[in-house]
Amino acid sequence: MPLSPAPDDAACADGDGFVVCLGGHRHWGRYGAAGLLLTDPGRGVLLQRRAWWTHHGSTWALPGGALRSTEKPWEAAVREAEEEAAVPATAVRPVAASTADHGGWSYTTVLAVPRWPLREQVMNDESDELRWVPPSEVTAFPLHHDFAAAWPALHEQLGRELVLVVDGANVVGSRPDGWWRDRPAAAERLRDRLALLARSGLRGSDVGLDAGDNWSWWPRVVLVLEGQARGVGPADGVEVVAAPRDGDASIVAATREVRTARPDDHLVVVTADRELRGRVAGEGASLLGPGALLDVLDAG
């Protein structure tokens, strides 16, 4: 985030320039800004020490920068991380995002995890150093003041994902749209819509998470199918579990497996079955009705 020419300078890149928010503070990025909070369980979080001549120079923050006019925050965050730290966009998987709205300007922190081991390096003169830092030691560094203010809420969500376990038969059967004429095709349509949701993300409040309205998530989806739909395969972002006989038992087992393997994750089971809801709640899952999920899918 370098000191920039005036926003009307012809040499300015798309999105470059300072703006003043409604609170009277000066921020970098005409369309807002975004940064990548990359977490590696074995190394910590990747921090960047900004060059002395940049805005808030010599402080530690995240690789990031101004959004371009056509970009979403996730796209800007990974582009900047690649430009500044040699972190390829294909090498990271987004998990969640937190947006701080300053009134007329916003900053989005995208929480992500590596898909494979990374070799980061300083790529331009906007940063002096990159360092993996254990989360417990982050506050010992001289942080950019906005990052310091956001860190407690970000730290609370580090390493936590949103997992949706979906009772496929219950969701498909909740709307009388002719699904009974071709149950495998109806299950495939649901799977494909869930795959789109896994790619595009959703607001945490849409599924009852209490992290705050400023949080959104890219969920991991476990779709449990039974009967004639058991032959439907997985899709990108959607794991499919074919229930051998008892679909409810498979949903409980999937819920228990997630909770055991990753106890800190946000776990939501989608079903309207009263008995099943009681069983998965006993496993520590939150609950969502099929109608609420379909409303999210309909909203795109």
TrEMBL record:
This is NUDIX domain-containing protein. Its cofactor is Mg(2+). The keyword Hydrolase applies. It comes from Amycolatopsis cynarae. Residues 29-155 form the Nudix hydrolase domain. It comes from the Bacteria. Keywords: Hydrolase. Gene3D superfamilies: Nucleoside Triphosphate Pyrophosphohydrolase. The keyword Metal-binding does not apply. InterPro entries: NUDIX_hydrolase-like_dom_sf, NUDIX_hydrolase_dom.
